[in-house]
Automatic annotation (TrEMBL):
Listed name of the protein: F-box domain-containing protein
Membrane-spanning segments: none
Residues annotated as domain F-box: 68-102
PANTHER family per record: F-BOX PROTEIN-LIKE, F-BOX_LRR PLANT PROTEIN
UniProt-listed InterPro entries: F-box-like_dom_sf (IPR036047), F-box_dom (IPR001810), LRR_dom_sf (IPR032675), LRR_FXL15/At3g58940/PEG3-like (IPR055411)
Amino acid sequence: MEHVLFSDAHANSKRTNNTINKALSLLSYPQDPIKFGVLIGCFLCWVAFLFVDHCIGEEDICCGLKVMEDLPVEVVGNILSRLGAARDVVIASATCCKWREAYRKHLHTLSFNSTDWTVYRDLTPCRLEILITRTIFQTTGLQGLSILMDDVDVFSASAVIAWLMYTRETLRRLIYNVRTTPNVNILEICGRQKLESLLLAHNSITGVEPNFQRFPCLKSLSLSCVSISALDLSLLLTACPKIETLELVDPEIAMSDAQVTVELTSPTLKSIYVEGISLDKFILEADSIECLHLKDCALEIFELIGKGTLKHFKIDDVSVLHLDIGEIVENLEIVDISNFTIIWPKFYQMISRSSKLQRLRLWDMVFDEEDEIVDLETIAVCFPQLSHLSLSYDLRDGVLHYGLQGSSHLVNVTVLEIGWIVINDLFSHWVEGLLERCPNLKKLVIHGIISEAKSHDECQILARFTSSIVQLMRKYLHVEVQFEYQ
């Protein structure tokens, strides 16, 4: 049997090598990670599995290695950069001389992530600094550098400064999330360079000088668990004349007075994501803003001053007393509101002129007044292009009836998502009423929360709901039904 396998393997070695050659030809498209994954999988599995099982000989391996040796060094650099993870890059670069040369001269992306290699967690910060320094200093022309070490408490300032000074002239993307002792002014080191994307976490930013610490190419800025004053945050945005994306996650806003107010201005900003922030007043002036997402925030006042470019508006678990997204909302396409106490008449008035609205999500809503309702008639009339509707809020006697009043249909709605927090017998009637108003519906998704300790009454309600839905959907055989329970 072993002789047969060996003979068959050599008989097919030419075909095997052709397979590898085809896989290697995928390197003409280094921007496609899927094709690159196929390549690496083919080659490594071919070498490791067949050689260990004595199905191929050294000639086959040498042939494959020669093909890799013949690749242009620039292409090899793209391959190594696609790997990204420093450990994998170092191992792959040991393949042959050309790959080592590509590592030194043509590697443009390098990543150190504690999730990539468990050994990182066993090393002391000092050993990690040495490892990172040696790896970075063997490269020239790095464009992307990522250092994400969640298990490291602190790096020395001297090491971090060395990494940044060595790479800053070519660096376009920087991700860094480790505290430094003492604090390193990353803005001062990387300012006035080619940096296009900066993600900074667990650091402090102080004394921003827009004229000196200017980022002429920066388009994406993300600050997570960063300590910064309201003034420095405003100045930092001013120092980025081309910024398009801003993320603020759990920032520690230093207070200069009793009232915490953040005022941000940017004519180029298109997307902003704010999470875990607590302020008295947040004013955003952005003439090009298209996407606004607030999550887990406590605000007294939020105001958006713009020119009606907003397309995507999302609020998730936000407490705000006064919300203003501007009077010009005609371009809104997506409104997603969840875990939010809402004054429906005021909120409806704010978005009622959004005739281009395509997706409306009102999820786990709490109404400020008990008799408030979300009526389908209003939604159908004001949002004629609506195609995806998601509703979830407590149903009460009387409110259900008024919410389904009217005769207008949601003719363009093809996907309907509905859910409950506490199920009752009104839910099945609500589903029936919604289905009647959506004549072109293609998909119905029902979300529900089921407690672990269910009473007899809860079981009976769920059983009645299941029976009614089965009976109801016999009338709508063309509609795909999907249940998602928690």
